[in-house]
Amino acid sequence: MTEQDSSKKDLLNRLNRVEGQIRGIKKMIEEDKYCLDVLHQIWAARSALTKASELLLENHVNTCFKDALGNTEESTPAIDELIKAIKALMN
Q1: pLDDT digit string (tens) for 27-43?
Q2: What is the CATH number of the domain that holds 25?
Q3: Is the entire prediction scored with pTM above 0.85?
Q4: Which of 17, 34, 82, 88 stands 20 to 30 A from 25 (CA)?
Q5: What average pLDDT does range 44-60 have in this prediction?
Q6: Average confidence (pLDDT) over 58-86
Q7: CA 83 → CA 6, 27, 31, 46, 89, distances in Å?
Q8: How many CB atoms lie within 10 A of CB 25?
Q9: How many other C-beta atoms can be found within 10 angstroms of the C-beta atom of residue 54?
Q10: Exposure on the CB side of residue 16, measured as CA atoms within 13 A
Q11: Number of domains in the chain
Q12: Could you tell me how far CA 17 lies from the centroid of its own chain?
């Protein structure tokens, strides 16, 4: 399995978990669960989506973006720094 296949599988697994969280949130609302409990689940789902977007962005930078730069060894530290900066911004 290639690194890209592994990243894709990880991303799909994360999104499947988020999908389950959303279904659970909908059920909590249907069952008139306590508002703060619902909010906690929404916050958890939002956090999970943020992590999924970080993974997707990191994969994009390490593949498409790196290829556009010419995929040279000199670009690797700059790409690592860019990924680190973006993750910090997203948190």
Answers
A1: 999 999 999 999 999 99
A2: 1.20.58.1000
A3: no
A4: 88
A5: 90
A6: 78
A7: 19, 36, 41, 20, 10
A8: 19
A9: 15
A10: 6
A11: 1
A12: 12
